[in-house]
Amino acid sequence: MPGLTAWQGLFDHGKLQSGQRVLIHGAAGVVGSMAVQLAREAGAYVIGTGRASGRRTALDFGAQEFIDLENDSLEDVDAVDLVFDVLGGEVAERSARLVRPGGTMVTIAGPTEAHPIDGKTIDFIVVPDRPQLIEIVQKVREGKIRTNIGEVATLDDAVAVFNKTDRAKGKTIIRVRS
Ligand SMILES: NC(=O)c1ccc[n+]([C@@H]2O[C@H](COP(=O)([O-])OP(=O)(O)OC[C@H]3O[C@@H](n4cnc5c(N)ncnc54)[C@H](OP(=O)(O)O)[C@@H]3O)[C@@H](O)[C@H]2O)c1
Q: What is the pLDDT averaged over residues 72-77?
């Protein structure tokens, strides 16, 4: 699901091309880390964002720059062709101003009023797509991209693991069969 979401945001909606600049929010997160890797693989220049604690992870996944949203100035980022937003709200509004004329902001955080001055905003919900999923899985198997898995729990522990306040970062996997 994170792979599909990243793929559809970058390529189906964002029309990302090799050589373009993309700003990816939540770059250490589950969707963001997939987006960082797929964008790099496609030859884009990737600026990741997140909290200070996510810097190392975002850079390890391949971001070429990292903006700590709590301490750095987002406004200092040079214009980008695409913003991949996972946060919405005020961050989306400030990011829209960074989109170059004719560029796009895609968001998975729900409908937003944030629009680039001369560009578009697309909010979307991931849809199942078997050929895309097969391609993503192939890239994982070939070691070209890696998943961001936080915790693996049994089905018996599923409720407890989702209720935990200190849940591990990354995707939680519930193993339904041993
Ligand atoms: N539209 C769709 O189809 C679709 C599909 C999948 C997911 N989503 C949505 O997309 C969002 C992201 O999902 P995800 O699975 O990638 O979540 P995630 O793994 O929690 O990733 C979010 C990342 O953003 C960081 N972050 C959150 N708030 C921040 C802030 N105020 N300033 C700086 N960094 C911040 C988080 O850091 P911390 O971990 O330190 O908080 C984390 O690294 C969720 O709301 C999810 O529901 C939508």
A: 97
